Amino acid sequence: MNMTSSDIAAQFKTYQDRIETVLDHWLPASELSPTRLHESMRYSVLEGGKRVRPLLVYAAGKAMGAAMTAVVSTYRAKSSAREVGKALGFEREQIEEGWLVNRLGNTYSGASPIGLTATLDVAKPGDPIFMCSYGSGAGSDAFVFTVQDRIREVQDLAPKTRWLLEENTIQVEYGEYAKMRRKIRLAGE
To answer: ∠ CA(150), CA(154), CA(156), 5° rounding?
Structure first.
């Protein structure tokens, strides 16, 4: 189906409305204290001219259609990746495999690659994977990958990401961790 420029403009308007609704939902109301800070936050985020990347993310997601199998994102808040995925029209099952913040914490710019590894652990040849990084300095880049037949040859050559996080754990108390990382020094060191 060929889209006219007015069709594209209407579709982008729909995307923009969704984006504005989500942003408005997550930003604190300007009436909340500290009001000046919240007014500034809303102004810097909600003023026009800052929607090209989200529009491109929507367009990439739309181009992949319902066949999309996974969304991998960096995320600050625990539910943020799920909310963004939902706003983009993905089902929870499409997001779950690459969503690791509940097990790993926020790894910032490492969240997308490690989420991608977890997704590739269960991917099948031909699966499209949509990976979008945002927040925490991630640069808001989006990529679409198509899993190749070779995945079957290499999938079991390394331990699975989820297994490493769930089964192969070593629990270290914070004090021990702090000593190992030289955050705490004992007297005489």
So the answer is: 140
Q: Are 135 and 92 in contact (CB under 8 A)?
A: no
Q: What is the DSSP string of 8-75?
A: HHHHHHHHHHHHHHHHHHHSPPTTSSSHHHHHHHHHHHHSSS--HHHHHHHHHHHHHGGG--EEEE--
- pTM for the complete prediction? 0.56
Contact indicator for 162, 99 with CB cutoff of 8 Å? no
151 within 8 A of 123, measured Cβ to Cβ:
yes
pLDDT (tens digit, 9 = 90+) per residue, 29-68? 889 888 888 888 888 777 766 556 666 666 666 666 534 4
Backbone angles phi, psi at 30, to 5 degrees: -65, -20
Domains delineated in the chain: 1-50 (no CATH), 52-158 (3.40.47.10)
